[in-house]
Amino acid sequence: MKTLSLILLLLLSLGGTSMAQAAENAVPMADKLREDGKIWVVVAVIAIVFAGIAINMLRIDAKLRKIEKDLNIK
Fold this sequence. Notes:
Strand content: under 5%
Order of helices and strands: HHH
Helix content: over 70%
Oligomer: single chain
Structural class: mainly alpha
Number of helices: 3
């Protein structure tokens, strides 16, 4: 649980700094994606990828804990 809260805290802190830079650096491609509404597709795909990575990490952690418990490793 500590790992999950640490990951969430890291993601939240990174999100704030990237939003501060968005107003200064206007990118024509990003403006076009925003106009067409396709930016939300990009955001959704990135969110799905990160969610998949997080779920995979949690599954691996659970499997490692089970193996450690079976082998009595502290």
